[in-house]
Design a protein that fits this description.
MetI-like fold; 2 strands; mainly alpha
Length: about 300
């Protein structure tokens, strides 16, 4: 008989090839970016790095690019968007979990926005945001709100919020479907026992349901935050980071320096700054959100 492998290492051995390939695909680009972040390299002047300049690229990120404006816009979009999408999704999930008629059809329709490519969503909302003829402009005017002269996408006061509206429309169903699956895993006997003890709906939600689905909630919040932090598609289609830098995000800023200005060294330095910022934010989130978990 063949000697069987010990049971415990087997899952790790099966995962090893995928992990090795994944790390290879990650390590080389990140190493390439790290090395070239210390060189002056602009494709408009040379196809190769010209000279070693140390930390000058990192300094220029803050001096000649709107990095801090982009960081502020990115944090507003990622934190605000995740918060709104989570609670909207939670409300829809609770509704789906009720015994109302038509919920099966509603679940089918609900998932449709997440199947649309973000670039298509961008064009769709771009037409709806048009000044005068756009749906949103018409609705706001009808409700008595003043629409900016240059339109919702052309005003520095409304451009970022308009991008957020498009993203919330597309990704709130993602939260709703995942949280609905979490609600289905809540033991019915616990809810029934709380109801018999006289707990109100609000008390059952905050003290029973929400703690029980917390593992699901903290994971999807982290995933969605990272997706929003890297938002590019909607910004590119709707505003191109404008007007000015009012809606420019870190990802669009990186694209602009690397693929418009062809400043590869500067873009490489910016890449690593973004990596450091995301790593710090995610690790702080993990320390707070996962501190009570038993591993």
């Amino acid at each position: 008989m063949r000697k069987r492998l010990p049971r415990q290492p087997l899952p790790y051995l099966m995962l090893a090839p995928s992990v090795i390939v994944l790390f290879s695909l990650i390590i080389y680009p990140m190493g390439f970016a790290l090395v070239n972040s210390f060189y002056f390299w602009n494709l408009q002047t040379s196809p190769y790095p010209v000279q070693f300049i140390g930390l000058s690229n990192y300094q220029m990120v803050f001096q000649i690019t709107p990095f801090m404006d982009s960081l502020r816009n990115t944090l507003i979009l990622s934190i605000g968007g995740t918060f709104i999408e989570f609670w909207f999704g939670m409300g829809i999930a609770l509704l789906l979990n009720s015994q109302l008629r038509g919920m099966t059809i509603a679940r089918t329709i609900l998932i449709m926005p997440t199947t649309v490519a973000p670039i298509v969503v961008g064009f769709l909302f771009r037409y709806m945001f048009y000044e005068g003829s756009g749906l949103f402009s018409w609705l706001l005017t009808g409700l008595g709100f003043a629409v900016p002269e240059r339109g919702l996408l052309g005003s520095s006061h409304t451009a970022l919020a308009s991008i957020a509206v498009a993203d919330i429309w597309e990704w709130t169903p993602f939260f709703a479907i995942v949280l609905y699956a979490g609600l289905l895993s809540v033991p019915e006997e616990i809810v029934d026992a709380a109801r018999v003890d006289g707990a109100s709906r609000v008390q059952m939600f905050w003290r029973i349901i929400l703690p029980l689905i917390k593992p699901t909630a903290v994971i999807i919040i982290m995933i969605r935050f990272m997706q929003l932090f890297n938002m590019f598609d909607l910004v590119f289609v709707l505003t191109r980071g404008g007007p000015g830098t009012a809606s420019r995000t870190l990802s669009y800023n990186l694209y602009y320096e690397g693929l418009v200005n062809y400043n590869i060294g500067l873009a490489a330095a910016m890449t690593w700054l973004i990596v450091v910022i995301v790593t710090i934010i995610i690790n702080v989130y993990i320390l707070i959100a996962f501190k009570d978990w038993e591993w």
